Amino acid sequence: MNGRPISGPSVGARTRSGKGVLALLLGVLLLVVTACGGGGDSDSGSGAGKGKDKDSSRTDTKVSQAVVTIAPKNGADAVRTSGALKVTAAKGKLTEVTVKDNEGNAVEGEITDGGRSWTPATHLAAATEYKVHAVAKDTAGRQAAEESAFTTLTPKNTFVGTFTPEDGSKVGVGMPFSVRFTRGITHPDDVEKAITVKTEPAVDVQGHWFGNDRLDFRPEEYWAAGTKVTVSLNLDGVEGRPGVYGKQAKTVKFTIGRSQVSTVDVKTKKMTVERDGKVIKTIPVTTGKPGYDTWNGRMVITERLKVTRMNGETVGYGGEYDIKDVPHAMRLTTSGTFIHGNYWGGGAFGNYNASHGCIGLRDVRGGYDGKVAAAWFFNRSMVGDVVVVKNSNDRTVDPDNGLNGWNMSWEKWTA
């Protein structure tokens, strides 16, 4: 051993090394701070940029103040088909409301009250699930949305409408669209609103109630030849009377054929047949004898029968006649007025009135001769053609006796 202190030189080396490391760390730290903070001479440009970047990345996390409410509530069952569905917005305005059934059919409606409410334009169908989606915006433009699903009631008591003319038929210019309901209607406005009539070319068509179970539609004047008519019976879910709902959803289409209007003059005992405004034939006839006078007025052919039985008992003339084979018969009133072939009238045609109120045209028994007047007229007529009777001693036929609403003024029809 030479006696030198063992720790001297080693301690000094560690001290110098520690100072170097510390200096190096301080330099790196200064470089980082300088790079992040920028130089003092360039603060004006980078400082403005830093503030702009901060504003542009800010996210508006405020919740919309608008509140959407849907009635009925989500999951509701046995919901009424009218008056129950309504969407409202508070502290905002509705911008979108969609209501669809489970087949994707949309329910039309309108946003009203300045955007605060929405109601359907029509009733809902019965026993049907509907889904509602509604969106509203507050004054800042922030959106709020709500959804709901509910099911309408299943009615215990229902009604339908039987109608004429049939779907796909071609009819004369006097044919109204007539519906008879299987139950008496006490909410006529709701039922009438559920039936729409569209025409091509367009014409104003209005409905009129006869009693509480029949509703007829017609224009002011006879239909124009060639008019196409489409009727939508949207009765499913309509409450026709308390607790009784319609169960019918059907579209009916029919076409108006050529125009044929025939005028019977009781005094001259002749019938003039006009086709599209031109006289095509004048036919001698016989009408109701005194005491059995034929109705005056405009009557629509509602039924065509090549042969039928006519029994006086069915119209209050019991025992006066019972003819089992009346040929070429066409009904004009519910009460039993026909225009028909007559093979038993002898020389009455064009000379004197001999019937019990019907209009008779010369015919042969069995109706086999296509050249006689009755066959000629029958073969050139269709349901919906008009037969006008004038100069009779009887009154005008009632508008609801058959499809004869043309005997009512337009003012009364639309009242």
TrEMBL record:
| GO process terms (BP) | cell wall organization; peptidoglycan-protein cross-linking; regulation of cell shape
Which InterPro entries does the record match to this protein?
A: Big_10, LD-transpeptidase, LD_TPept_cat_dom, Transpep_catalytic_dom
Q: Which Pfam families match?
A: Big_10, YkuD
Question: PANTHER family, alphabetically?
Answer: L,D-TRANSPEPTIDASE, L,D-TRANSPEPTIDASE YCIB-RELATED
Q: Where is the composition biased (Gly residues)?
A: 40-49
- What's an example of a GO molecular-function annotation for this chain? peptidoglycan L,D-transpeptidase activity
> Whose protein is this, by species?
Streptomyces fructofermentans
Ranges where the record places region Disordered: 40-63
Ranges of Basic and acidic residues composition bias in the record: 50-61
Keyword Lipoprotein attributed:
yes
PROSITE patterns assigned to the protein according to its UniProt record, in alphabetical order = LD_TPASE
State the pathway, as annotated in the record.
Answer: Glycan biosynthesis; Cell wall biogenesis; peptidoglycan biosynthesis
* L,D-TPase catalytic domain boundaries: 260-390
Name of the protein in its database record: Lipoprotein
List, from the UniProt record, the residues annotated as the active site of this protein: 340, 358
Entry keywords, A to Z: Acyltransferase, Cell membrane, Cell shape, Cell wall biogenesis/degradation, Lipoprotein, Membrane, Palmitate, Peptidoglycan synthesis, Signal, Transferase
Tell whether Transcription regulation is among the UniProt keywords. Answer: no
Any one GO cellular component localisation term in the record: extracellular region
